[in-house]
Amino acid sequence: MSLQIQANVSLKPFNTFGVDVSARWFAEAHTDAHIREALAYAKERDVKLLVIGGGSNLLLTRDVEALVLRMASRGIRIIHEDCSTAVIEAEAGEPWHPFVQEMLARGLSGLENLSLIPGTVGAAPMQNIGAYGVELKDVFDSLIALDRQTGQTQVFSLADCAFGYRDSVFKHQTGRWLILRVRFRLSYAAELHLDYGPVRQRLLEQGIKEPTPIHVSRAICAIRSEKLPDPAVLGNAGSFFKNPLVPAELAARIREAHPGVVAFPQADGQVKLAAGWLIEQAGWKGLRDGDAGVHDLQSLVLVNYGGASGGDLLNLAKRIQADVRERFGVSLEMEPNLY
Ligand code: FAD
Ligand code: NAP
């Protein structure tokens, strides 16, 4: 079946903030042929193309004068397998958390710390998703992307992706690469990462002394569900700001004035500060301005109580940025992609 393009579609169901803006055109791509049709459609009419997955890392600040293409391709296949590892390829439109669960059910580990992250497989490399001490790059094999300028496909190795903290080459070449499918290198021999945050403690509380990857996944799902708002109930895009990396001298100055600062020294000499702590100290936790607010359990998360526009959320974010800069001398970078 050919690509179904609709005009003037509300994007409210397609972004986890639940912001109500509309797309001039909207379509869902189930196949590579659909993607090529969408590219041709956009080129013929000289309109932009905005590719989205689950819309869980987007802040839409106005109606989108473009063809919004939602990735809905499905498929998971084994590319290579031996007794200890497997290389698994997944289509970009595969929903992330069910994919993680499927890998765990097959006895493959590596993704368990990344459980319950919303969104799709294809968007995961965009910001090198990370949680509880594991990042996508740790299990990444390669990906196949379409160059929207030339129409050619290209294979990206780990080095080609230039993954960093919530960062990749794709974030810096916005609109050029359309990620079609991603390959993961997973393991049948579990090497667990339990030393981050409350994971180990949670397992011990449950009496689990020799955890399996499935135990770790369940513990992380439980921790996340207690702390993070469910977008189906309260609109949000997860962490709104990245944790800032600051020079050691600035971190020391902040610690002098605020001994409780949450800070993690990095291998390169910089110090990662918990942005949530800075925002909370500045008094923003739980604060609400109209329908835009700061979550009351995790101040890194901005929430939409129902009727907030993207502009309302952006204004709140800018006020927080200015306040944190003034109080601590630290610049907070926004994490979601702004349109
Ligand atoms: P979208 O929001 O749809 O798109 C994000 C960006 O990627 C956009 O710029 C879009 O144009 C681009 N894009 C999407 N698909 C493609 C593609 N196939 N090819 C090229 N470009 C594409 N993130 C973390 O890193 N760690 C977490 O622990 C985490 N927890 C979260 C918890 C909650 C409750 C929420 C709401 C969000 C969380 N996030 C987290 C953020 C978000 O879920 C991830 O960044 C996720 O990978 C975004 O996927 P998506 O499909 O929703 O992408
Ligand atoms: P948390 O456990 O309360 O920790 C607060 C912050 O401290 C985190 O942001 C984390 O940084 C950092 N941290 C904690 N332990 C650390 C360690 N041992 N070494 C270095 N840094 C450490 O955080 P949380 O909000 O509940 O989130 C838990 C995990 O899920 C984090 O990894 C977080 O990034 C991830 N998460 C991400 C999003 C998103 O939208 N991006 C949303 C929800 C949760 P890091 O963020 O650098 O890991």
Our Rg estimate from Cα atoms comes to 21 Å
Q: What is the averaged pLDDT score?
A: 97
What best-fitting shape do the alpha-carbon axes yield? globular
In the CATH classification, which architecture of the largest domain applies?
Answer: 2-Layer Sandwich
SS field, number of helical segments: 9
The major sheet is characterized as: 5 strands, antiparallel
Count all strands and give the number: 20
At the fold tier of CATH, the topology name of the largest domain is Uridine Diphospho-n-acetylenolpyruvylglucosamine Reductase, domain 3
CATH class of the largest domain: Alpha Beta
End-to-end distance: 30 Å
Number of domains: 3
SSE layout and pairing:
Blueprint: E1 6-10, E2 22-29, H1 32-45, E3 48-52, E4 58-59, E5 64-71, E6 76-81, E7 85-91, H2 96-105, E8 130-131, E9 134-135, E10 140-147, E11 153-157, H3 158-161, H4 169-172, E12 177-187, H5 199-205, H6 213-227, E13 235-239, E14 245-246, H7 248-257, E15 263-265, E16 271-273, H8 275-281, E17 288-289, E18 292-294, E19 301-304, H9 310-328, E20 337-338
Parallel strand pairs: 2-5, 3-5, 4-20
Antiparallel strand pairs: 1-2, 6-7, 7-12, 8-9, 10-11, 10-12, 13-19, 14-16, 15-16, 17-18, 18-19
Bound molecules: flavin-adenine dinucleotide and NADP nicotinamide-adenine-dinucleotide phosphate.
